[in-house]
Amino acid sequence: MARKPSIPKGTRDFSPSEVSKRNYIFDIVRKHFRTFGFQPIETPAFENSETLLGKYGDEGDRLIFRILNSGDFIDKVDDVTYSSKNSASIAPKISEKALRYDLTVPFARYVVMHQNEIDFPFKRYQIQPVWRADRPQRGRFREFYQCDADVVGSNSLLQEVELVQLYDAVFTSLGLHGITIKLNNRKILAGIAEVIGAGNHLVPFTVALDKLDKIGEGGVKNEMLSKGIPEAAIEKANPLFSLSGSNSEQLEVLRNMLSVTEAGSKGVDELGFILNTLEEIGLQSAQLAIDVTLARGLDYYTGAIFEVAAPEHVQMGSIGGGGRYDDLTGIFGLQNVSGVGISFGLDRIYLVMEELGLFPSGIDRSLELLFLNFGEKEALTAFKMATKLRKSGVLCEVYPEAAKIQKQLKYADKRQVPYVILLGEKEMEEGTFVLKDMRTGQQEIKPQKEVGNLSIKS
RNA sequence: GUGGUUGUAGCUCAGCUGGUUAGAGCGCUAGAUUGUGGUUCUAGAGGUCGCCGGUUCGAAACCGGUCUUCCACCCCA
């Protein structure tokens, strides 16, 4: 081997045990998506660049992986552009496709393209990888999976309620208790900005506010100042920094503060409805918390904003997020279709579950029973028995070579097979086999006819 | 994209202010043990010291670049 092979930064190989555990999460998520009436779709790994570019802000554009055109692409660039050495002007001429950056924008594109076949309200789920040219960190990769559930074509706040229930159902099912679903509303943020007189600084205001738990009140105020937000406005925002108490108490403070703004009041009403309805219905294990600092940089949220925080003692960014966007398909020419959706960060959920030891034991068991190979004739009988067992769902295989028994047992040990069947010359004559429990070392002799009745408890 | 950090055997890591044949533990292979794994004992295999260049009589070590790892920022799942 001349050089050791490698994989690109921020990507990963998944070993058998990791795939098993990932599938365990996928299966649970998928099961709940389906029980809530969501239907699966899939979209291509890459889209036309114009579909993606400009949808996630400048910062987002930077993180989109672009795909080089095929053929002699440089020959097609005119001399002026070529000699400009300007990446921004050359890039569109040599790259017309880009890797999917998230699942929401492709979904919007899908809805617009298939609007005549879709029955609204349309509830879809989608579990596929996305790619971002980001710098990797813990829980941040350049290739990772998103599991999205979105509803388009309904303005009802019951959708928000249902999505919170869906979060609760999935995380409860995964055994991931103690998560907090943080709630906010874009209209509340807009209302606050309006009331304090920072209405035309809404984005920098929310971005700064979002960092409260990270850089503290002083840090947030400094950042706001540096973005040109008047000091008087920042002073007026003071009540936000000391917002505390129960959800309904916080809601009351917000209601008073925002009563003079139409948008703000509407946001408070919406949030109030969602909270009240959920209180009525009840949740299994998730906590609900109003968090006015929750901004989720995404420009297209217009109503509810969700974020799921891992249990407190786990060091991990958000493990899910979502919100309402009144006009997502507008960018593709279909007006007045409202959507609301949530996303699960599978890779991060995996890391959290691994850290908390929440995967059921034996989930990555790849083999329940191994037949040792004593020779041609014995192996043939073993094969017949294995065929029978497989029909009843037992994961089994016959060791392919008549290697030393010691070696075969060592292999069984490594694979952590709970049971081994020894079938040698003596057993052939007697029409029996020896069943060995690898964990206790105990063996028992059984007639070959009874192989179908074996109970494998692993 | 900005700043820092890391890279030595399959894995986890030693390796002194530069000094000649590159170290350990675990793992791996074989044997002790021709029908019994995990334990034990013995032997063995395995390394262009991330890569490229420079300084030096001499570089795993020092310098520059590059890739990679992890972390902080930006942003985000």
UniProtKB/TrEMBL annotation:
The answer, when asked if Cytoplasm is one of the entry's keywords, is: yes
According to the UniProt record, one GO cellular component term is: cytoplasm
Which residues are in the Aminoacyl-transfer RNA synthetases class-II family profile domain?
1-353
Q: Which reaction does it catalyse?
A: tRNA(His) + L-histidine + ATP = L-histidyl-tRNA(His) + AMP + diphosphate + H(+)
In terms of InterPro entries, this protein maps to: aa-tRNA-synth_II, aa-tRNA-synth_II/BPL/LPL, Anticodon-bd, Anticodon-bd_dom_sf, His-tRNA-ligase, HisRS-like_core, HisRS/HisZ, HisRS_anticodon
Return one GO MF term. histidine-tRNA ligase activity
Q: Which domain of life is it from?
A: Bacteria
Q: Does the keyword Mitochondrion apply?
A: no
Q: Where, by residue number, does L-histidine bind? A: 102-104, 132, 146, 150, 296, 300-301
The biological processes this protein is annotated with in GO are: histidyl-tRNA aminoacylation
What are the EC numbers?
A: 6.1.1.21
Q: Which residues form a coiled coil?
A: none
Location relative to the cell: Cytoplasm
Q: Which UniProt keywords apply?
A: Aminoacyl-tRNA synthetase, ATP-binding, Cytoplasm, Ligase, Nucleotide-binding, Protein biosynthesis
Which CDD domains did the record assign? HisRS-like_core (cd00773), HisRS_anticodon (cd00859)
Record's Pfam families? HGTP_anticodon (PF03129), tRNA-synt_His (PF13393)
EC class of this enzyme? ligase
Q: How does it assemble?
A: Homodimer.
Q: Which family does it belong to?
A: Belongs to the class-II aminoacyl-tRNA synthetase family.
Q: Which PANTHER family match?
A: HISTIDINE--TRNA LIGASE (PTHR11476:SF7), HISTIDYL-TRNA SYNTHETASE (PTHR11476)
Recorded protein name is: Histidine--tRNA ligase
Give the species: Pelagihabitans pacificus
What high-level taxonomic lineage is stated for the organism?
Answer: Bacteria, Pseudomonadati, Bacteroidota, Flavobacteriia, Flavobacteriales
